[in-house]
Design brief:
The chain has one domain: Thiolase/Chalcone synthase (Peroxisomal Thiolase, Chain A, domain 1). It is built from 12 helices and 17 strands. 58% of the residues are buried. It holds the Pfam family ketoacyl-synt.
């Protein structure tokens, strides 16, 4: 099979400002909890007790999601995925910052671009249990558009804030929550919007758990990315949101910036990555080129690192070829693999790493696979960071890398 084509363009672009962000996952509700968990090397995975699912696996379930109540006017959006979204939106003053942006730019000048893999499919799964025994009809109250449709997530967020700008859902498997930054980048550069709410939300459901189980990809213990004994993934759920705007020039000291985005599609296989990691390497190279950053300037890489044998091996080949010796880790050992939300969650984790000078440990991993030639962080390290790379790679060879940086001295 021919190698993937080179990126169409690698010219440097102006940065975007991550003016505010938030994340909720099994390691914490909001940023303070998340940072504490990263510092303390504390994970949130536990044996699966979600609903009536009976699988010998561990999951990253977010507590309190079922206690969230959507506003009555948004009742058609009521499902676990949108409740998780609302729980996250109300953390860290994020909703207030979005409303301030509305007052500053106007509701029609703010876009919404959100990633998800299954949206509110759980609502349909539960509805199938309530079908009419004679006709097989689903319950009359089921709103496919408001819950199951991938657009239900950005539709809910757009309605919650009363936004009127462009909105779409990105569902490209596990790269979804990273690729949304490209959607925002394009429309801001085109002058169609001034800011965007980007991010990703995915919640636990039967489809993903039994689906990955049927692929024999689920671990029967907390996942161990890059470990010699790794044996599969742990599914998690999460919601992460970022408010992105044009970066001021000069950017204020300490501002978190999106410097470059790289995307590729190696189309090697429906579910397996290219064995040499060609698509992954292309995405990283493009992100660096567009950010005007050399490989030697990258201080940390948040790996896609799912803990499957094939994924970790191919990503390690790409890292060792492009970024040899660069410290890296996968935070999926703490959060689980949050699928369509992973790219957004890990972008926020990288933003926190830049803000607090943290290189998060890859917890659960105890013995690095000797065939994977990377500098994998087994313990959290603390030191100032300037540039970090976040990888999100999905089924079908959909790859996305985000290059984030911390402004220093008005740069």
């Amino acid at each position: 099979m021919a190698a993937p084509r080179a990126p169409h363009s690698t010219h440097s672009v102006s940065p975007l400002h991550l003016s505010h962000f938030t994340a909720t996952s099994c390691i914490g509700t909001g940023l303070d909890d998340t940072v504490s968990a990263l510092r303390e090397q504390r994970g949130g995975l536990a044996p699966c007790q979600f609903g009536d699912i009976r699988l010998d696996t561990w999951v990253g379930e977010v507590p309190g999601v079922d206690d969230v109540t959507l506003p009555p006017a948004l009742a058609d959006f009521d499902c676990r995925n949108n409740r998780l979204a609302l729980l996250a939106l109300e953390q860290d003053g994020f909703a207030d910052r979005v409303r301030e942006a509305v007052a500053r730019y106007g509701a029609d000048r703010i876009g919404v671009f959100l990633g998800t893999s299954t949206a509110g499919v759980l609502q349909t799964e539960l509805a199938y249990r309530q079908r009419d025994p004679q006709t097989g009809a689903l319950p009359a109250g089921l709103s496919y558009a408001g819950t199951h449709s991938p657009y239900s997530l950005p539709g809910f967020v757009r309605a919650y804030f009363g936004l009127k700008g462009p909105a779409n859902a990105v569902s490209s498997a596990c790269s979804s929550g990273a690729k949304v930054f490209t959607s925002a980048r394009r429309l801001i550069d085109a002058g169609l919007i001034d800011a965007a709410v980007v991010g990703g939300v995915d919640s636990l459901c039967h489809t993903t758990l039994y689906g990955f189980g049927s692929l024999e990809l689920l671990s029967d213990q907390p996942c161990q990315p890059f470990d010699a004994d790794r044996n599969g993934i742990s599914i998690g759920e999460a919601a992460a949101f970022v408010l992105v705007e044009r970066a001021p020039d000069p950017a204020p000291d300490g501002a978190i910036l999106l410097l470059g985005i790289g995307e590729s599609s190696d189309a090697h296989h429906m579910s397996a990555p290219h064995p040499e990691g060609l698509g992954a390497r292309m995405a990283m190279e493009q992100a660096l080129a567009r950010g005007g950053v050399s490989p030697e300037q990258v201080d940390y890489v948040n790996l896609h690192g799912t803990a499957t044998r094939a994924n970790d091996a191919t990503e390690a080949r790409a890292i060792s070829a492009l970024l040899p010796g660069t410290p890296c880790s996968s935070t999926k050992g703490a959060t689980g693999h949050t699928l369509g939300a992973a790219g957004a969650l890990e972008a926020v984790i990288c933003a926190l790493a830049l803000r607090h000078g943290l290189l998060p440990a890859g917890i659960n991993t105890t013995q690095i696979d000797p065939t994977l030639a990377v500098d994998y962080c087994l313990a959290t390290r603390e030191r100032p960071l300037r540039h970090v790379l976040s990888n999100a790679f999905g089924f079908g060879g959909s790859n996305c890398s985000l290059l984030l940086g911390r402004a220093m001295g008005g740069q």
